[in-house]
Amino acid sequence: MTGKLSLSELQLIIRDSLYMALPDFYWVVAEISEIKQNYSGHCYLELIEKQDDETIIKARIKAVIWSSRYGFIKSFFENATGESLREDLKVLVKARIEYHELYGLSLVITDIDPSYTLGEMAAKRLLIIKKLEQEGVFGMNKELEIPKVPQRIAVISSRNAAGYSDFMNHLQGNSYKYVFYTALFDAAMQGADTEQSIINALNRIASKSDLFDIVVIIRGGGSQTDLSWFDNYNIAYYVTQFPLPVITGIGHEKDLSVTDMVACKALKTPTAAADYIIETVCETENHLFEISLEIKNFARDIIEESKNRIERSKNTIAPLTILLMADLKKSLSEVSLEVLRLGKEKIYSAGIIIANRQSRFVSAALSFVTVKENLISGFKQAFISRTGISLRRNNNRLSAMENSLQMLDPVNVLKRGYTITSLNDRIIMSAATPCEGETIDTLFSDGKISSRVTGKNEKKPKDTTS
Question: Which one of 88, 189, 254, 323 is separated from 308 by 20 to 30 angstroms, measured CA to CA?
Answer without folding.
Answer: 323
